[in-house]
Amino acid sequence: MRDQKQNRRSPSETLFIHLLLHLGFSKPLLSEAHLREGAKAFGKRSVERASEMIEGRLAHQMHQWPTRPSNKVPGKGVTSNGHLIEMSLLAATMYYLYGERVHEELSMQEVINAFDLYTNIRESAGAVAKRVSPDTAFYLSRELVSHYAFIPYCSNCGVRYYSSVEQKIKNACPFCKEVGHGDCNLS
Ligand SMILES: [Zn+2]
Prior knowledge:
The chain is mainly α. It has 8 helices and 4 strands, in the order H-H-H-H-H-H-H-H-E-E-E-E. Residues 154, 156-157, 173, 175-176, 178 line the site of zinc ion.
């Protein structure tokens, strides 16, 4: 009985899961991630149950928003300057909204806010590469916490960009190729 009670989710939590599924977050991520501050992870069954309640197609399916690749270490997926620009738009958006707090743990809602703004910005900028997936956006926020990734400032271009210790191309501003302030400066 006690277990049942603990597993029961409130309608607002179920709706939150529905929103995240529509946006294209994967079920494994939603099962394991701490979606609410101080709350336990939802677990596979809760997410599965919430997902079964959705009728029809998900928003990401209807609009063909990319949901892959889902990189647990987003830096490893950065293999071209186009990718680096996409990740930079997202990382700079996080920094614009939350400043140095990006290196603490952003909440799921904050990740969504940044992802939403990134999506709008990249559309007006014209597509450079494939849109970053929601899962990768979440993992980026965790990469910033573990200091695998940084958001240095390029004074030439007046922009912030993404820089990861794991990226496959040079750590530098994706626009002018100079090394900015706060970059990892690996050599
Ligand atoms: Zn630059």
